[in-house]
Amino acid sequence: MACTALLGFPTPPLHAYTKSNAHKTDVSPSCCSTNEQQTVKKFTYSRASPSVRWPHLEFNQTHHTSHHKMLSPEVQDEIEAHSEEVSLNADVNADEADVFDEKLSRNKVKKMNKLALKRAKDWRKRVQFLTDRILELKSEEFVADVLDQKMVQMTPTDFCFVVKWVGQSSWQRALEVYEWLNLRHWYAPNARMLATILAVLGKSNQEALAVEIFTRAEPAVGDTVQVYNAMMGVYARNGRFSKVQELLDLMRQRGCAPDLVSFNTLINARLKSGPMTPSLGIELLSEVRRSGIRPDIITYNTLISGCSRESNLEEAVKVFHDMEDHKCQPDLWTYNAMISVYGRCGLSSEAEQLFKELGSKVFFPDAVTYNSLLYAFAREGNVDKVKEICEEMVEMGFTKDEMTYNTIIYMYGKQGKHDHALQIYRDMKSSGRNPDAVTYTVLIDSLGESK
Fold first, then answer.
1. What confidence score (pLDDT) does residue 150 get?
2. Which residues fall in a coiled-coil region (predicted)?
3. How does DSSP classify residue 68?
């Protein structure tokens, strides 16, 4: 298959994205009743729950996590973090950021009086103050009750961070903030704000709602690469490669040139959509370069992480060598992914050797590094080595997390040591760690094999 077909540069008609007048943003300051919300098509603020405002959509409340996903952090988070860092920090004064104390306690912020907050030059304090107030609301209270008080003088960029920070704990509350802003015409619609709420919904697995908001708001904010990238990221998380292709084609049709974030997102979607074909990684890298863009560390990490998911050592090594040939310096994420792919391919010695080389490359192992190495030896049933890695991990200041316990349960289950597996499960609960879907899947598989 030609790479141009893989990346979808031929531009077919996109009837799915033709906008009708009904999709245009129509902001009204009035709140609607529940019955009115089910019939009126206007995109208006309501204090009802999202399921009432959008009764035709399905909302996901849980996330399904595979064993390997726990070993490999979500690549799309890294792609979006880079994009957000560039866009959201563009208007933030560097001097303000330097004087901010990252360890500023919530209680200290709360004790700041209104006058001090209004005069505060530190945007982080303003954002943290509102974020705390919103997340402290009871279920029957509303975001508007906080924001209507105008306790702090906020900029549009400040509000983007509020949506982002609130969304890390509650996508519903973040959506309330976004809707409140839609009533204030001096803040919304806004490309940066739209991209922010789309990213929040994508991370919360609320694709249907993200599509609804994008479709209604996109005509009003114009053709901006930031918004398209955010919506592409929503699709990429679920491996919806064809949808990402469609958006990329739409960008080109409208004269909006894709950037490196666009290509990184597209590559991530392709890798999640199905098995890798031979030399796919090199083909994708070549296509990015033919577009006049130089692949960066995130491009390479996305590809190597994809190889790790499929236990495709040959392709991972090709991409890693291409990275070295083009003078792109690997980072800890790169080495973690390579350790993971060695381990998943049954090459624990190679994984350990790469682990030992981290110090000479001025990198310090993190929890992901240790868990990836742990899995390499757990896969081959090396109990002594697993215990040794666990001890070193704790000595280095890392605690055993869900990933660690799941891997050890998996090891004992494969060996038929079901009593040991159950004991690790009990240790996991007593340590305060919460068993997840992976834990129970591994336990069930283990007990099933014992019959």
1. 85
2. none
3. H
User: Structure tokens of 117?
Assistant: 């907050």
To the nearest whole number, what is the mean pLDDT of the chain? 79
Helices (H), 26-170: 34-39, 50-53, 67-71, 75-88, 94-99, 106-111, 114-119, 123-135, 143-147, 156-167
Distance (Å, rounded) from C-alpha 147 to C-alpha 150?
6
CA distances from 317 to 94, 279, 324, 403, 441 (A): 39, 11, 11, 25, 31
Task: Lowest mean pLDDT of 12-26, 33-47, 88-102, 421-435, name the range.
Answer: 12-26
Are 117 and 129 within 8 A, CB to CB?
yes
CB distance 172 to 50 below 8 Å: yes
* Global pTM value: 0.72
- Distances, alpha carbon 95 to alpha carbons 160, 303, 446, in Å: 20, 36, 56
- CB distance 174 to 28 below 8 Å: no
- Spatial separation of the C-alpha atoms in residues 191 and 438, rounded to whole Å: 38
Query: Does residue 102 carry a pLDDT above 50?
Result: no
Please measure the distance between the N-terminal and C-terminal CA atoms of the chain and give it in whole angstroms: 46
**Cα–Cα distance for residue pair 73/305, rounded to 1 Å:** 9
Which of 393-396's residues contact partners 24+ apart within 8 Å by CB, and which partners?
393/367, 396/365, 396/370
CA distances in angstroms from 216 to 18, 52, 213, 248, 291, listed in the order given: 12, 18, 5, 19, 31
Count how many Cα atoms sit within 13 Å of the Cα of residue 351 in the half-sphere of its side chain: 29
Quick: pLDDT tens for 344-363.
Answer: 999 999 999 999 999 888 89
Contact (Cβ atoms closer than 8 angstroms) between residue 278 and residue 48: no
Residue among 5, 7, 1 at smallest CA distance from 258: 7
